[in-house]
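Q: Given only this backbone (106 positions), what sequence would you predict?
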């Protein structure tokens, strides 16, 4: 299984990579929203962990773009955000995310 980690903070990307690889998963990374969309189209991950505050293209916009790509439209997207409010959750789910996780996470 391949996971795309779209996160602009290198330390968080590294943490997620370590956790996922220890569980036997392959990991590809992107540090901004445009790279996330490009990497997803090229790598065809089985799961996407999408940070909400990505530069160049935020996580909501990147998710909308990914949902418009037929080959990626069914790939689960877990939104990672520092915002716990209901408006942020609603926006992520309406964009096409499958789950919403508030950072920091365990």
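A: Predicted residues:
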């Amino acid at each position: 299984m391949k996971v795309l980690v779209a996160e602009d903070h290198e330390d968080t990307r590294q943490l997620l990579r370590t956790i996922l690889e220890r569980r036997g998963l392959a990991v590809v990374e992107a540090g901004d929203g445009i790279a996330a969309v490009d990497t997803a189209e090229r790598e065809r991950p089985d799961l996407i962990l999408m940070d909400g505050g990505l530069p160049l293209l935020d996580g909501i916009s990147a998710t909308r773009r990914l949902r418009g790509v037929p080959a990626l439209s069914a790939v689960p997207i877990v939104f990672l955000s520092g915002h716990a409010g209901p408006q942020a959750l609603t926006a992520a789910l309406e964009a096409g995310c499958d789950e919403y996780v508030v950072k920091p996470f365990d």
